[in-house]
Specification:
alpha/beta; Rossmann fold; 10 strands; binds adenosine-5'-triphosphate; binds magnesium ion; Cell division ATP-binding protein FtsE; nucleotide-binding; AAA+_ATPase
Length: about 300
């Protein structure tokens, strides 16, 4: 779904790369946490997936396509299939919750009938069916983030990127937002979330990719926020901090070196996988068209009755 092939990004000549020799793949349907100190390259990875910035070296693939080969006129189509949520919500301040979601559909020319059906559906999904008429400043932070998620998801993207979506929220509101992202993931969207939120990562126990200075230092299925030192049972090389061990019982089998994953997920010839990705996208488009056609028919029936 998303693949970084030996990607290095240097914003300014002479500067340490924001991302260096990155080799990693996020597959369809995964929920991935990107963790790491401020400046470790998390947002840079997301920006490259959106083609907001390009790699200095290497290749970024989304849905099997090399982004550097996507012409600029096709970039909107790429972004339509990628929802994005930010820490500061980024809603349009003079538009209501309803209009903010509607806007995401209008800009891609969605028929009005479909908009009238989808927006209330989205408001309901995020639990704001009674707050569609509110302006962003009349909503709490958590509610604003729900609107932002509804707007990011309304086009049913295959990928949702969330850059510290709970950064401005209190713990219980953050949990609600996380559950919503979990639900979106369960509906089939690949979710990549950059976060400093320990409890979010520890609660979900999904794949955790940890960055240090632009490089992946940990890639772990079912991980926690804090890294657990790998243990070699054979060498008897157990860590000396037994208190830490009791708190986080180590499971050596659960831990994988980043290189190991890279080997497993990078077949030499992935053209078959690319074709599959394209088919899945075509399938999604066909489904949307069918939905719209069915809806138009419903409307015609209604007109006939009148
Ligand atoms: N537009 C830019 N121009 C120059 N340098 C940049 C730019 N954007 C980011 N950087 C640098 O790239 C590095 C990685 O930044 P990035 O924003 O990806 O980090 P991050 O992991 O998202 O950090 P945070 O957790 O604070 O959001 C940092 O050293 C940063 O200063
Ligand atoms: Mg960031």
């Amino acid at each position: 779904m998303i693949r970084f092939d030996n990607v290095t990004k240097t914003y300014m000549r002479g500067q340490h790369p924001a991302v260096e020799n990155l080799d990693i793949e996020f597959t369809r349907g995964e929920f991935v946490f990107l963790v790491g100190a401020s400046g470790s390259g998390k947002s840079t990875m997301m920006r490259m997936v959106l083609k907001e910035t390009g790699p200095t070296r290497g290749t970024v693939y989304v849905a099997g396509k090399d982004l550097s080969r996507i012409p600029s006129w096709k970039v909107p189509a790429l972004r339509r299939d990628i929802g994005m949520v930010f820490q500061d919500f980024r809603l349009l301040p003079s538009k209501t919750a309803y209009q903010n979601i509607e806007f995401a559909l209008a800009v891609i020319g969605t028929p009005r009938k479909v908009v009238r059906r989808l927006v209330p559906e989205m408001l309901e999904m995020v639990g704001l069916e009674d707050k569609g008429k509110r302006l962003p400043h009349e909503l709490s932070g958590g509610e604003q983030q729900r609107v932002a998620i509804a707007r990011a998801y309304v086009n049913r993207p295959s990928i949702l990127l969330a850059d510290e979506p709970t950064g401005n929220l209190d713990p219980s509101t953050a949990e609600g937002i996380l559950d919503l992202l979990g639900e979106i993931n369960e509906r089939g969207t690949t979710v990549v979330m950059a976060t400093h939120d320990h409890s979010a990562v520890d609660r979900m126990r999904r794949r955790v990719v940890e960055m240090v200075g632009g490089q992946v230092v940990r890639d772990q299925e079912g991980g926690r926020y804090e890294s657990e030192t790998p243990v070699s049972v054979i060498s008897g090389n157990l860590p000396d901090d037994s208190a830490h061990r009791e708190e986080h019982p180590l499971d050596a089998a659960e831990y994988r070196e980043p290189a190991e994953r890279t080997e497993r997920t990078e077949p030499e010839d992935d053209s078959a996988a690319d074709v599959l990705e394209e088919e899945l996208i075509d399938e999604r488009d066909a489904r949307l068209e069918r939905d719209e056609a069915a809806f138009d028919e419903e409307d015609e029936d209604e007109e006939d009755r009148r």
